Amino acid sequence: MRFSEQLEAKFNQLISAFPPGRERAALVPMLLYAQDEVGHLTPEVIQEIAGRLRVPVHEVDEVVSYYSMLTRKPRGRYHIQICTNISCMLLGAEQLLEHAKQRLGIDCGEVTPDGRFSLEEVECIGACCWGPAIQVNYDYHHWMTPEKLDRLLEELRKAQ
Amino acid sequence: MSKLVTLTIDGKQIQVPAGTLVINAAKQAGIEIPSFCYYDGLSLQGACRMCLVEVERVPKLMTACTLPVAEGMVVRTNTPQVIEARKAMLEFLLTNHPLDCPVCDKGGECELQDMAFRYGAGEGRFVEFKYHVPEKQWSPVVYYDAPRCILCYRCVRICDEGLGVNALGVVNRGVRSEIAPNRGDHLECDECGMCIDICPVGALTSGTYRYQTRPWEMSHVGTICTFCADGCKTTLGVRNGIIIRANNRDRSGINDEFLCIKGRFAFDFVHHPERLTRPLIRTLSGFREASWAEAIELVAERFEQARQQGGRIGLIGSTRTTNEENYFLQKLLRQGLGSNHIDHRQSGDLVSLLMATRGREGALATTADLYHASGILILGADLSQQHPLLAFQIRANYRHHRARVYVVTRGPVREDQIAARSLRVAPGQELEALESLRTELQGLPDLVVLYGDSIKGSAVARLVQWCDSLAIAVRYVCLLDDANSRGALDMGLVPDWLPGYRSLDQMNLQPGLCWEEMLESEELEVLWVVGANPLRRRHLKRRPWLVVQELFLTETAQQADVVLPAASAYEKRGTFTSVCGELQQLQPAAQVPGAKTDLEIASLIALQLGLELGPADPDELLGEIHRTVDGYNVDLPLVAAGAAVPTGPYPDVAAVAVRVDKIRSREDTLFTAGSLGQRSQVLTSVREAPGSLYRG
Ligand code: SF4
Ligand code: SF4
Ligand code: SF4
Ligand code: FES
Ligand code: FES
User: Fold this and answer.
1) Which CATH number fits domain B350-479: 3.40.228.10, 1.10.238.10, 3.90.1010.10, 3.30.420.140?
2) In A, which residues are within 8 Å of B184 by CB distance?
3) A82 in the same domain as A60
4) What is the full DSSP assignment across A45-89?
5) Which ipTM was obtained for this model?
């Protein structure tokens, strides 16, 4: 399979950044970029990347299943990740998560029927000073409250 | 020799070679450091933390399995801190582990059970529910129960490093981590069961053995695998005369703990329902069962007639009968019946090699040489398929000593993975390709050359000549198919030489008919087939009177006039000689009532004929072989003790006209083994069967 021109160029650059025989070091970034473009890691994507790096498919599976940021399941256009690790938890992350579940009508690991949102409970995302912290795709949102979350969801719902 | 390092472990001062790991240094001092993931010969993992020890002036506990010794190092393995750490590690391993040893298949021989008993705390403090996932079946022979897995990676490493298959990996993270097979929900691999064997706990279990018995209910019989020529020692677990398991956990034998699918699982042919248990005599309306006495009498009568007509009898023998049987058979035929029409299906040309290296010491390589040689040259064979143990040895040599491996074959083989150079040539063209390897090979201190059936006759002589021109130390392995193919050649089960490769002149004999000629010959009155299936794909043009000794009613047995039910190699005493020439002792494990060993049958015939051929007891015959057969003047007590004793040399190799076109390998894969293999349910049930050669 082929990816977009930009991504193909990026892949070439990534692979050539490692010495011959060590190309497999490009595996994690390639998976991540491919996921950004395709939405999730389909069997075809995994097969393709395994082939390009000459890594057995089951070794790619090991990596994909290890990293929680890599997914084989489709996600929503906006992937809401709510940290419930200790600092955020003390500042009300659990209530926030409950609230999000109710508002979106989905549980963790699920996608809304319109495909717009998916929800995930995550461990510390390194924003403890500004907890409760959440991450939407790659964007951080700090000092979250149920009200702020509602407003954010409303904006995202309207976004094109 | 590497330099010695002095260190102190638990107050004992010891000296060990530099580079030794603390866990092994302690073992040498008689101190056990508990471990799970450490495994001799495999890469270091440092996964289980069971081997933690205190090292003076190091602030934290260290893993003894990854720590090389250093001069003046002071190690303590029995301080309160270490004891506490072991307890904690075990508690940790047991958090999600089921505590149901009484129903676990591994109970009684489980390393976790033993460790918990020895080093563990009596109580765990976790109150959470255990994380549980259901057991999975990955193949007919491999089952995996994730909750029991302690993630030691032994299975992953043996499959990748040992077998070169790399079928196992670890997926997920944290408590959800588990071992996963290469095809998602199932395995596509060698099905060797090495992963099951090496698993310290009951996570990987064997489809054929699980829940059949308890380890202490079996008796354990150390014998030799009856399939390929590599000569793996196998320890058969037997209950009530039935073989239930095969492994080699005590790591005795030339194979250490290695067994391929055939050695580990394919013994089930022994108890196949179609085993013959009564002699059969042909009547006009088909076979009828007969008593041994009647059958032997009838056979002897016909043999006697053939003898009186000037030895008009031919014998086609087997590559899975013992040396003693083959020796006795050729003696019976040559001395007793006056015939030299004696042969078996030859799968490699050893005699040409012996002629070409006549008078040299150490021209033949042993199995151990494959592990130590600095160079390996593989000509015309798919070793991983046809010689799993030899391939395993060579991979270990590459891992541990960086051996230079060269492959010259007609298609891709697994050895390409570790090869310095791989060349693809048409069969028979191997020697022409060698010249391009000359400079590289010349730079090596020593070389072992393994050659398959495409190199025979004058090509063997040319090979030796070419290797001589390298001016380095070269030893050879002539690859042969079956468990005692080598013994059949050594014992003179051929029309062209006597036992020990002596000339036929010594008995005033002319070269006899080869087995294919025997099938066509007008000359023979009687054809005697012992453990061979020459009529698998052909019919006799002219029917001589046919006697067949067999385990099953094979294509050949179906055409016989008398069929005598024979015992398999797992039911008899005697010796086999491996492809690399090691002599090893067989021990009877199973009992199949009604069948007799080929030696017993042959000696009954001899008795009925009134022939004086000397003793027909396996041990006494081995004594006779030892005295009379060149190459077998070896240390017999060692053989009796279960060691693999190298045979050779052969001081008096006859000049033989080699029948080049009769030498052909059966080209078995990992999953085939002639007519025996067809009767193994396991071997035929795995999805990889029958497999193919030269697929990489
Ligand atoms: S059976 Fe052998 S080849 Fe298959 S996964 Fe286990 S170790 Fe690997
Ligand atoms: S299955 Fe057995 S050998 Fe493999 S990691 Fe688990 S415990 Fe270790
Ligand atoms: S390698 Fe050969 S001798 Fe060893 S277990 Fe397999 S078939 Fe038997
Ligand atoms: S605990 Fe939530 S960001 Fe660190
Ligand atoms: S044996 Fe040392 S960490 Fe496992």
Assistant:
1) 3.40.228.10
2) 58, 61
3) no
4) HHHHHHHHHT--HHHHHHHHHH-TT--SS---SEEEEEE-SHHHH
5) 0.83
